[in-house]
Design goal:
The protein is built from seven helices and eleven strands. The chain is α+β, with helices and mostly antiparallel strands and 293 residues long.
């Protein structure tokens, strides 16, 4: 199950920031589970994790509550959550009990959101970074990370509410909604993945192209969603390897690989499901490009 994934959205032509908007609303926040004992396990698990790792920080995150497609535009439906609730729901050993029963009669997308209504489901992100010598960058995670230590992943992390000054829905309601949704939030979806690549790989932001949004993948294990982007870097892989040694977030990984696109498939078994989904979104993008040619 850890390698299984579900594609929630594929945009093989790649979308620019002007084509992506965000609807931030309390209606996309997590709903408490009716089982009070299950709800109480959230605090218990968090407290146990903090005891083992004093460096844990309960930061705000955007909660994935679905999306709406009006081609060629996509609107993210986002609520607010935090890392503590993520650890206590999605990463809970009893995480499957947080899932609501599938209703079956709704569309696949609506039923998916309904099923995950009691989980934190913070929206993660990942980047398929292509070097100037046409290789794809992949990281091996260190043992210092909370999820999938030692696995191979694309660089990524999370868009951050606090980067755009959001700490609660009170702030959201105090601003012009159109200004908040269309400028700050949608841009954070793209700015955040550039930050992650710069911090994890060590390349200057000026060497990176504007990201293109290519879709959303969800890991079956822990129902973990992630938005994926395609980015070109104008440096060769040998230059990037030299910069990686001084990357700001180098502690999160132990090795950088520059892989030929044709060899990515051989690494799939060593990737978490959501990143395997990212690989599939990249393949769909390449197929779309071939069809255009």
């Amino acid at each position: 199950m850890e390698n299984e994934y579900k594609l929630l959205l594929s945009c093989p032509s790649g979308l620019s920031p002007s084509q992506v908007t965000v609807n931030l609303s309390e209606s996309y926040d997590r709903l408490p589970h009716p089982d009070i004992h299950l709800e109480n396990s959230i605090s218990k698990i968090w407290d146990e994790r903090v005891q083992h790792s004093k460096s844990l920080f309960n930061g705000k995150k955007f909660r994935y509550g679905g999306h709406n497609v009006m081609e060629p535009h996509v609107c993210f439906h986002l609520g607010l959550t935090d890392y503590r609730t993520f650890v206590g729901t999605n990463l809970n050993p009893l995480w499957e009990r947080f899932l609501a029963p599938s209703e079956g009669k709704k569309t696949i997308h609506a039923d998916d959101c309904k099923q995950c209504q009691h989980t934190s489901s913070p929206l993660g992100n990942g980047a398929i970074v292509e070097t100037s010598d046409n290789k794809i960058l992949v990281l091996q995670r260190s043992n210092n990370v909370g999820e999938f230590p030692g696995y191979l992943v694309f660089p990524g992390g999370h868009p951050e509410p606090e980067e755009v000054g959001i700490t609660s829905h009170k702030f959201e309601n105090g601003l012009l909604k159109s200004e908040l949704n269309n400028s700050k939030l949608s841009q954070e979806m793209f700015d955040s993945i550039v930050r992650e690549v710069v911090e994890e790989i060590g390349v200057p932001s000026a060497t990176l192209s504007e990201p293109l949004f290519i879709g959303i993948s969800r890991r079956v294990l822990n129902v973990r969603p992630a938005a994926f982007f395609f980015i070109k870097c104008n440096l060769q892989s040998t230059e990037i390897h030299q910069l990686y040694d001084s990357a700001q977030d180098g502690y999160e990984s132990t090795k950088l690989y520059a892989i030929q696109p044709s060899e990515l498939e051989s690494l799939a078994s060593k990737m978490p499901g959501c990143h395997q989904g990212g690989m599939e979104l990249y393949k769909l993008m390449l197929e779309a490009q071939k069809n255009i040619k």
